Amino acid sequence: MDLPIDIVLFLVVLVGFFAIGLPLITSRVSVPRKVEFEEIPDHALSPAQTLYFARLDPKLREMGYRPYGNRIPTNMQGRALVRLYLSDVDPAIVMMNLLTSDVGGSGDHPMNYLEIMTRYRDGSILSTRNAEISEVLDVLPDHVIQERRGLRDPASLKRAHDLKAEEFRSREPVFSRADEFEQAFHQYHERWCEHQVSRGLLRVVDGDEDRLRPTVKAGVRGIGNFLNPFADNFT
Predict the structure, then answer these.
(1) Under DSSP, is residue 31 helix (H, G, I), strand (E, B) or coil?
(2) How many helical (H) and strand (E) elements, i.e. helices and strands, does the chain have?
(3) DSSP states of 121-187
(4) 91 exposed, middle or buried (CB, 10 Å; 0-12, 13-18, 19+)?
(5) Are 31 and 211 spatial neighbours (Cβ–Cβ below 8 Å)?
(6) Quick one: CA dihedral 39, 44, 48, 49, positive or negative?
(7) Residue 109 in contact with residue 103, Cβ under 8 Å?
(8) Rounded CA separation 176/61 (Å)
(9) What is the DSSP letter of 88?
(10) What pLDDT digit, counting tens, does each position of 90-133 carry?
(11) Cα separation, 232 vs 222, whole angstroms
């Protein structure tokens, strides 16, 4: 029985994902065990980044948050930029993650997302974010992530975070200082890496103990997310 041409093309693409894409994912993608950051002053931001923050900063200022520097991870693949915001009266921190900040001169890209995070004395973390890309790797057991895809208004995102945070009040939230950001991140990232290795999603790179690569299990999961029309911002 002859199959319709669109089914044949889909099967060819599917085979290509696993025959070509999977080996590329497991051999070329890597994650550092320790992320190295570079501070980027505001005057060194790109025009697209400057324009985006000129629109975002006043909204967060109305919520009591001020920017405390921009950082880029220098030893990770990609060109992400993180802008940190802190409040004097609220323990939650706000991070704007620009993953495609130079594309088309706009920060309003589905891969860019705002994350509001509160740390607690028992080591747990509550995050609320509007990322539209599904997770491929596992979340730490003590890290609760509240997804609010498509909720671009910072004030609405913060209200959703505060509502969920009421359930965690007894854990005692921890206030963060700007100079503690990298230390707290390194501690979290180290635990995250060990968790992925224990779950069989990342492996040690041969001859390089400082980097981890995705396993076949992680690669298959990533391909599955890409093919699943309900996994991400699918149109």
Answers:
(1) strand
(2) 6, 11
(3) TTS-EEEEE---S---SPPPTTEEEEE-TT---HHHHHHHHHHHHGGGGGG-EE---GGGHHHHHHH
(4) middle
(5) yes
(6) positive
(7) yes
(8) 17
(9) S
(10) 999 999 999 765 544 445 676 789 999 999 999 999 999 998 87
(11) 11
Which tokens in the block code for residue 223? Answer: 């391909």
* Two tokens, residue 13: 């693409």
> Residue 44: which of 101, 120, 124, 86 has the closest Cα?
101
Question: Which tens digit of pLDDT belongs to each residue from 4-48?
Answer: 676 667 666 666 666 677 777 888 888 999 999 999 999 999 888
Q: Is 188 exposed, middle or buried (0-12, 13-18, 19+ CB in 10 A)?
A: middle
Cβ burial of 196 (10 Å; 0-12, 13-18, 19+) is buried
Q: How far apart are CA 170 and CA 126, in angstroms?
A: 13
Tokens (6 digits) for 205 = 């790179």
Q: Which two tokens stand for residue 71?
A: 């950082």
Distance of alpha carbon 70 from the chain centroid:
15
Task: Look up the pTM and report it.
Answer: 0.85
**Which tokens sit at 210?**
């400082």
Closest CA to 113 of 137, 85, 132: 132
User: Tokens at residue 134, please?
Assistant: 């599904």
- 55 with 33: CB under 8 angstroms? no
Whole-angstrom Cα distance, residue 41 to residue 60?
Answer: 19
Nearest to 126 by CA among 136, 116, 114, 141: 116
Pair of tokens at residue 40: 């980027």
Strand pairing partners for 7?
none
